[in-house]
Amino acid sequence: HLGGTLSDGGANKFAESIGITMVPTDKLVTEYERKEWEKHKKYIAGVNEEFNTQAHDTVGAVALDSAGNVACATSTGGIRNKMLGRVGDSPVIGCGGYADNISGAVSCTGHGESILKVTLARLILSHVEQGKSVEDASQLSLQHMGDRVQGAGGAIVVSPSGQWAAAFTTKRMAWAAAEDDVLCVDEHKGAG
């Protein structure tokens, strides 16, 4: 049982110690991604521009069970040309995701460094704890991130009472919500 998070060389050593077959890094890079890396590698502001203008591959989930327990999960899409050893917002509790049975669950997407600087997931639930709706809490927190650190992003949120929201400041964010066997799907802001 691990009591923390492993990254970079530590993760590789652990994987080898439990018998995971190692694959050369160059085998994991597609020709498309190699060309995109070449195109953007000299562009200093590329990371900020990409996150503020394009869709990405983060997959997040929030859930509420019949006993009132909430949960969140966030899987990063990653960023191109990241610094070696960079750990983004997704694995950092309170940033890319946060869940508390008292206030709700959040999963975030967007510019990781901005999300980290404002602890976005925890900030959203802090507003909920102060009496804001999940929609208002999400909008306020995303606006704060934009004003404070010029970052764009999005969040999905569910409260212990079943109130939910999908909010974002990027051009789009695909989301889906299921409630009482009814599925809602969109790429625009939503709440229920």
Task: Provide the descriptors you would attach to this structure in a database record.
alpha+beta; two-stranded antiparallel sheet; 192 residues; Glutamine Phosphoribosylpyrophosphate, subunit 1, domain 1; 9 strands
Summarize the structure.
With 192 residues, the chain is α+β, with helices and mostly antiparallel strands. The strands form three sheets. It has a five-stranded antiparallel beta sheet. A two-stranded antiparallel ribbon has the order 1-2. The chain has a two-stranded antiparallel ribbon with strand order 7-8.
What's the topology here?
Elements: H1 8-17, H2 31-40, H3 46-53, E1 59-64, E2 70-75, E3 97-100, E4 104-110, H4 112-118, H5 120-129, H6 134-149, E5 153-158, E6 164-168, E7 175-179, E8 182-186, E9 190-191
Antiparallel strand pairs: 1-2, 3-4, 4-5, 5-6, 6-9, 7-8
Helix pairs in contact: 4-6, 5-6
